[in-house]
Amino acid sequence: MRKFAALLFILLPVSAMAQKAEVGITGGICSNTTPTGTIYYIADKPVQSFAGSATFLSNLPNKHLQIGVDIYGVGLANKASKALATPYFGRYIGGNNETFTYAKLALSICPVFNYKFNFSEDGYVYAGLALGIAGSYAQPQTSGNSDGTQVTFRGINGGFGFTGGGQAGITYAVTSRIALNGEIAIRYYHLSFTTSDSYPGGANVSINTLAYPITIGIRYRIGFEKQLNYETGRYQIAKDRKYKSHTDK
Fold this sequence. Notes:
elongated, 249 residues, mainly beta, 6% helix
């Protein structure tokens, strides 16, 4: 945790001083693999959940590199193809169309590193890596499926762990400041929980899963390009050009 905080402390000032940077927000869908670990109630069929992110990226002087921070929020859930042998709140679950929600919200914050390639003055494609910390929220449940929804298992609240993976996407300008963004990512989540001794598997529970968020959104460019005024010998703010000016020397 201390090492991660130190890395953010280094990255954020570097990004803030960058000549060109981007902030973005996205929304979309996510699915995840069958969980592994010591979680007892395991469902094996994927379902679609939500995904969303907020991103801050610094475009480095090397026109192909970006560093920054992203905050991802996803839901982690599956459906079970067969009934489980141990009841949950006095009720046997699984083998139907009800959902096992492992995290109503899994929230992560990661330093990100991207390699980008400009395919025109208006846009670029990119791919990169991310590694950071994650926590999760699960809606408390005191009885099995008592609210009449199709959610039969609501997970354990207060998960904490790490996440890592990669992302690839495309950014295309609609103005000199605003661009559309589409991204596909893969994130590995390891979350640990502390629960009561009566929970199947004991008091210390963990889950591991791969999530696949697909999102679309917008990016906004901040920062200004400067150019030398040969008459005055001073640098001045240049007139905005297209989105590619992120990568100008």
